Amino acid sequence: MKLLEPFELGGLVLPNRVVMAPMTRNRSPGQAAPEMAAEHYAARASAGLIITEATQVSARGQSTADTPGLHNNEQTAAWKLVVDAVHNSGGRIVVQLAHAGRLTHSDYHGLPPVAPSAVKPVGFVRTPLGTKPYETPWVPTTPEVVALVEEFGRAALKAEEAGFDGVEIHGAHGFLIDQFLQSGTNQRSDVYGGSAERRRRFAFEVLEAVSGVWPKSRVGFTLSPGGSHKGIFDEDPVGTFTTLAQALSRKGLGWLHVADFPVGELRPSEFLRPVFPGPLIVSEGYTRDSAEEALRAGCADLVAFGKAFTANPDLVEKFRNGDRLALADPKTFYAGGRLGYVE
Questions:
Q1: Shortest CA distance to 60 belongs to which of 182, 147, 123?
Q2: Distant-in-sequence, close-in-space partners of 340: CB < 8 Å, separation ≥ 6
């Protein structure tokens, strides 16, 4: 089975092509990963690669309640316990660095959300003071955008201190980088807005900041072409993300991780694979059989699984043996506590 074959990723020898997808679990009060997170991740160390849940690069980058950060010494120490546990169990783990941008609320940090333009998200957000509508974000000046880039660079340093094997930059699902990339949320007229080339400038500056700490072979980037989370959209998603993937390939990116839900009649892997010859991870709704099919067709090099790993820490072994998978219980996804996390 190709899914269980080894793969080399940036000098890391992965024993299989099964990736644990990043999954927000809302179990990090005070933005520090709890002790049980070490147990949670280490139990899944048989994955070829673990990608952590989205981890904010600053307090202002927090999206929802009890999500972890990587911007102070306490958080770094907490993540080091997780990394050590995974390594001691024979695994490999990279951290996904994120900034929620407009997808947060001032109730969390006393500051308005930040975004490339003053485009309010649709819907509501759960805050410490109850469920409220999203707020219209504050728009940074051109020099202030540079400060946002620097937050990713500092978090990359913290990731190195914690002992991670690499870094994945969160450019998907309506978060800050995605807000700069997509035309519906980026209405700027400076060097960070306008054409698709200018809209991707922020993403590339983040990549360079992170690559100042990590070799690019250990840096990945996640995208969700055509994603519409909380009202985000792009006028030409295929064109925008195809040219982005081409440019990322030229920059020597370690891997591209794509949320592979359809954009019109095409899956992103169909139009990105031809322009990104480097390691490609796909996710979103894959099963063992469909993952195997994608790998054999050359549509991807690795496949990430989310809900399946939530309920099956031994997912790789179950794939190997053809065992039936336990079903995840959605009521425990964001409930906090040990149930549905380590029990």
A1: 147
A2: 310, 328, 329, 331, 332, 333
Summarize the confidence of residues 145-150 as an average pLDDT.
98
What would the two tokens of residue 239 be? 């064109």
Nearest 5°: CA angle at 288, between 283 and 294?
Answer: 60
Provide the pairing of β-strand 12-14 with 7-9.
antiparallel
Average of per-residue pLDDT values in the chain: 97
With vertex at residue 198, the alpha carbon angle to CA 195 and CA 200, rounded to the nearest 5 degrees, is: 110
CA 208 – CA 142 distance, rounded (Å): 17
> pLDDT tens for residues 202-256?
999 999 999 999 999 999 999 999 889 999 999 999 999 999 999 999 999 999 9
How would DSSP label each residue in 109-155?
A: HSS--B-SS--PPSSEEEETTEEEEPPPPB---HHHHHHHHHHHHHH
What is each CA distance from 72 to 110, 156, 167, in whole angstroms?
A: 18, 12, 17
pLDDT at 226: 84
What are the structural domains, with CATH classification, of the chain? 2-332 (3.20.20.70)
Whole-angstrom CA distances from 302 to 136, 225, 282, 341 are 38, 18, 7, 24
Relative to beta strand 124-127, strand 18-20 is: unpaired
Strand 49-56 vs strand 124-127: parallel, antiparallel, or unpaired? unpaired
Q: What angle do CA 247, 119, 198 make, to 5 degrees?
A: 25
